[in-house]
Design goal:
The complex is a heterodimer of chains A (about 140) and B (about 150). Chain A is α/β, with parallel strands linked by helices and about 140 residues long. Chain A contains six helices and seven strands. Chain A has a single domain, classed as SCP2 sterol-binding domain (Nonspecific Lipid-transfer Protein, Chain A). With about 150 residues, chain B is α/β, with parallel strands linked by helices. Chain B has a single domain, classed as Nonspecific Lipid-transfer Protein, Chain A, CATH 3.30.1050. Chain B has a six-stranded mixed β-sheet. In chain B, a hairpin with a 4-residue loop joins strand 2 and strand 3. The longest helix of chain B is centred in the first third of the chain and has 16 residues. Chain B starts with 6 loop residues before the first strand and ends with a helix. The chains are: A alpha/beta (about 140), B alpha/beta (about 150). Chains A and B meet through helix 4 and helix 5 of A and helix 1 and helix 3 of B.
Amino acid sequence: MAMKFFSDEWCAAAMEAINNNDAVYKGFKDPASFDHPMFFGLLDHPEVRTYLTFEKAKLTAWTTEKIHGDGPFDFGLNAKVEHFREAAEGRTEGGKLLMGGKLKIAEGNIQLAIQNAGAFNNFLLTFGQVDTDWDI
Amino acid sequence: MSDGTYTVSCHDGDEANGVANILNMLLMQNFANKPELVKVAKRMKRPVAVISTDTETEATLEFGQDGVIIYNGIIGDPSVAVHATVDQILDVSQLKMRAGGLLPVGFFTKRGGKVLGQIATHKLVVKGLFSHTIASLRTIALVSVAD
């Protein structure tokens, strides 16, 4: 059964898929030091925001709970559902959506996004492995 | 936003396009992390354009003595115009530059070789590279995230 995008059960399923995707891991510049608190939110549903933790380039938490308080975050990204879906379905790479202004970095270090662009693209593409209900 | 002495702003505010927004963040963080780049920015006499060819998004950097303003689209008469895909822009922004771009050490790496190869085959076009070489190298130094 399809899970609501960015629900807790969806985040858990996506976390497993991402951690099992070698293409994501190989896309990190320095996996051993990739430890970062992040958030991903929806521009068209501002009430929806998820919080995640990377430790050594593996996701150790991804939830709708504010596990990092109000920040600071090393990376925060907002986009409309349709643009996350566009990346998940492989129609457009994350980097192109970012440069085209469809994905918006709200907080954090742009260096992180640039140096780990390979991981970022595959991270978003892995969303497509999760049976997702995109109708929020 | 400002590093205290040199400001970075998007002329189009909330309507700034993706390239303008990314350049805005990149320059703000670079001026904060590498304050020596402010001198490099102050030496830029004419605008620089960045054209993301695969997203058809353009932005122009106009440098002044107090700050840089980033415009949507191509404004004025840029001396340097980088026409590149997103992947090429990512590669260029990871080239290590020394001495404000005058020592382009990043070109002598695997990534730099790839960039040079794409320039040679016109897959990546830097207009002004030969007529405004120093400005071109300074541009790369300003947007480079390499330590």
